[in-house]
């Protein structure tokens, strides 16, 4: 299942990350973003993404898709079979943008929202024509490298739309995980928010600096979580007695004073100053662009290292990375062949076929 | 600063991990553990650790230290200059064991406790002779591979003891981070506990399974946190506007219903069954030993990959890993030379020299 023509609504860090992933997969993208700086910002992200993909594919990248800047949402989505919305996290803005997308997108297109936490049911009420094709497709920064996408359906979303979305995201090298029940912030940001709140307390209370906290993460459980999640890690920690033993041993800790859980720290200028200042101490020796480069190089290296594990089959994100780079390499070698066959293959339009079924079911 | 003779009190998953790290650094260890199975369990961990270190050092390991099983705490600690306590997390037991260690250990030794969360001030009250030499040295499983150790001093701990502990842990390839204020659970377990509590809610409420939650972690922010902690990651996410912009953008989320923060889920049989059952679905195809092997191979591969980043200087845990493997390789090549020089070098006893200063200050 492939995308023929994509549209990106919003070109910030996340939107531009989607654009980069799509273009580097050879897919044409029309983007709409009213920011006069959008073109420059997207091309900065593209530069970084291209650089990262060259590390993954020293033998050469696939032919990039074509990027066009649309003047309106209507123009961007009018002939797209996949549309990803990545505008700021304000429900009123989401409503306005999704209503506009809904009005002009082909009936059989799939619409994904990058929201980090707004429920799709709360968003799709603004879509008067085909709300059943909206899913949350929540990615993680940098979108062109990190494979996870959380898929969440709302009350009006058709199950088929979720199936098609899964296949679409998989086709561009991602790992879709469908969330079973619709809640705010889904799963990833629930976990991140819990850790973030606790981290703010630790800094505010002077227990450690942001640099020390970061070191504590990346020299310990961060290394673990790059390859196994917390439940599998704790299963091993239970030793020969396993998960049940681990839970019996650590269950009581939940009642100990081990977290600040009942409060949210007051989010005032003092806290912002403290954290921003410490963050400068930690990182101002690098520009954001340099930090991005370091981060991307590290992520590629980690995924590549994991792709050689598990008797060469790859493990976790490494197994996916192995398949993804293989797929891109095949695409790259295909570009040198006659383009007729590729065009013919695309003409089967599998996304549209399934999506048509969805649209048909509604109307 | 090197350790001449170490003692390990407690040989569970953590205690045995310390033993493995010490032995593989060529340091003699006396261990005390009343469990009749202790010897078998420690040798299982040693087997895994030896295997992991062989991946790190294909050219050969240093000569291993000698392991002796002591019949009493007194026998284990009597001539040790570094003692690591890793008994279960019960304050009464910690008191009993630390009092016994204190009674028999040389006055100028350093005593580290592996506790995940008990305050050192609450433990050292049981030490009648030299409480000033107790520090928390909280490691992360697997201790022989993960470099982080949180160092925490109590009300009676001398600053010099913290300095010596830092040097001791560094000498065996670890990354010590000194926690600035004494709190329960320190920094690492505060963050872990916050994420764990949230995870329990997500499973209990049927939002996802343990396997899905693990995938959500290891295909997204887990990869990020293996190389940068959350503050540096968010600084980048702020884009060109940086940390202040990020905080302004995401500050309000703290007030949204993005976490279950105010409650602890009831920890009953139903929840344990649910999680243990889902954990079996996820992982029962591997034995714990197989999972340990996979985990260790992955960790070594990730640290090795990071050791080649940052223009070859290594990044984060990778930079440390680079130095550590170099140090071990030098130690390995030294074992083939005349042992006289090594013995002479050891005779300077730098740990004891500084530690003597501490003991002197007290008495």
Automatic annotation (TrEMBL), chains A, B:
Residue ranges constituting the 3-hydroxyacyl-CoA dehydrogenase NAD binding domain according to the UniProt record: 6-182
Catalytic activity from the UniProt record: carnitine + NAD(+) = 3-dehydrocarnitine + NADH + H(+)
Residues given in the record as NAD(+) binding sites: 10-15
InterPro entries: 3-OHacyl-CoA_DH_NAD-bd, 3HC_DH_C, 6-PGluconate_DH-like_C_sf, 6PGD_dom2, L-carnitine_dehydrogenase, NAD(P)-bd_dom_sf
Record keywords, A-Z: Cytoplasm, NAD, Oxidoreductase
Record-listed E.C. numbers: 1.1.1.108
UniProt pathway: Amine and polyamine metabolism; carnitine metabolism
Principal cellular location given in the protein's record: cytoplasm
Location of this chain's protein in the cell: Cytoplasm
Residue ranges of domain 3-hydroxyacyl-CoA dehydrogenase C-terminal in the record: 186-251
Subunit comment: Homodimer.
Similarity field: Belongs to the 3-hydroxyacyl-CoA dehydrogenase family. L-carnitine dehydrogenase subfamily.
PANTHER family the record matches: 3-HYDROXYACYL-COA DEHYDROGENASE FAMILY PROTEIN, 3-HYDROXYBUTYRYL-COA DEHYDROGENASE
Cited function: Catalyzes the NAD(+)-dependent oxidation of L-carnitine to 3-dehydrocarnitine.
Protein name, per record: L-carnitine dehydrogenase
Source organism (scientific name): Mesorhizobium retamae
